[in-house]
Amino acid sequence: MKISRQDVEYVARLARLTLEPEELELMTGQMDAILGYVDKLNELNTDGIEPTAHAVPMANAFRADEVKASIGIERALQNAPRADGDCFKVPKVIE
To answer: Which of 65, 3, 13, 7 is nearest to 38 (CA)?
Structure first.
């Protein structure tokens, strides 16, 4: 095995996941299979193959930046469930 149960427990703790023992075994097997597949891909000869981010050549797909008028505070807050002056009012999410 390339990955141990302790490694899976550590990753689950980092991801704030609580896994049952049977889930830990399942995840350990699945992650080992994924790492085995990646290791198999490392056997491919990639000499002379240029790394790419896309399968086909791409030019810049973004539009040019243009200065435009903003929608204004009143219109931005128009559909807000709650507002406080010129700000959106949201529930506290950090204790």
So the answer is: 3
Domain boundaries, the chain: 5-41
Write out pLDDT tens, residues 8-43: 999 999 999 999 999 999 999 999 999 999 888 888
Whole-angstrom Cα distance, residue 28 to residue 83?
47
CATH architecture of the domain 5-41 equals Orthogonal Bundle (1.10)
Distance from C-alpha of 42 to C-alpha of 53, rounded to nearest angstrom: 18
CB 34, CB 3: distance < 8 Å: no
Which pair of tokens denotes residue 3?
């990955």
pTM as predicted: 0.48
Could you tell me the two tokens for 84?
A: 């406080």
Name every residue whose Cβ is closer than 8 Å to that of residue 90 and which is 6 or more positions away in sequence.
82
